[in-house]
Design brief:
The chain is an alpha+beta fold. 49% of the residues lie in helices and 19% in strands. The protein has nine helices and seven strands; from the N terminus they run H-E-E-E-H-H-E-H-H-H-E-H-H-E-E-H. The strands form two sheets. The protein has a four-stranded antiparallel beta sheet with strand order 1-4-3-2. Helix 5 packs across helix 9. The longest helix has 25 residues. It is elongated.
């Protein structure tokens, strides 16, 4: 379906590349659908339409990962396997989002988990937070839910945690499918993260009430 040169794979996975132009004469993909790219993984189509090759902007080329117009034209012809008239022809413009290599992990990130899995995940996070001198898990998830996406530098300031620690913490949350990362926008919370945050917040309120009862 999609064709990408291997040299662009890492930038697609990190969210640095979010746009592609394909040499198709029809719209072969649908907005909102998920497709597998060969040797790359799963891509969700955010938007798709035709665009005249002559009207492609420098900003769009940058989002595609191309260093220049000449590089784009050369590689576009390689994908098309023919000579292309860049003055008259059009391409299929597709905005994409990389969602991983495994559909099951994607489903989990979307919140499709059993109650038992949700309970085990909640318990794990509570224990992890209790082990830390400065609990950060619930606070991080709340920030991401409030701001949608936050770059690493903003998290450093708000959590008062050094950059290396932020990267380590985010890696842990991402492995649990609770957050997503994008090179341009930063870190964001997944639907599973939102679901877990609700259960964690509820659990925290119960613990606080129990402490108050014990003090009376």
């Amino acid at each position: 379906m999609f064709r990408f040169l291997k040299k662009y794979h890492d930038d697609i996975k990190t969210g640095n590349i979010t746009l592609t132009f394909q040499p198709w004469d029809t719209l072969r993909v649908l907005r909102g659908k998920i497709y597998r790219a060969y040797n790359l993984g799963l891509l969700r189509v955010l938007d798709v339409d035709f665009k005249n090759l002559l009207d492609i902007t420098p900003e769009e080329l940058k989002r595609c990962g191309y260093s220049s117009l000449s590089v784009f034209q050369k590689e576009f012809e390689e994908m098309a396997e023919r000579r292309v008239d860049f003055e008259k022809e059009r391409a299929v413009r597709i905005e994409v989002e990389y969602i991983g290599e495994d559909i099951e992990n994607y489903k989990k990130a979307m919140g499709n988990v059993k109650d038992s899995e949700l309970y085990n995940l909640k318990e794990k996070l509570i224990i992890d937070d209790q082990k830390n001198a400065t609990p950060w898990i619930i606070k991080t998830l709340r920030l991401l839910r409030e701001y949608d996406y936050l770059p690493s530098r903003d998290l450093e300031k708000r959590l008062r945690v050094p950059a290396e620690r932020i990267r380590y913490n985010m890696k842990k949350l991402k492995a649990l499918n609770l957050i997503t990362s994008n090179q341009r926008k930063g870190y964001g919370i997944t639907p599973l993260g939102v679901k877990v945050l609700k259960t964690l917040s509820s659990e925290k309120k119960k613990l606080e009430l129990k402490k108050l009862e014990m003090m009376e």
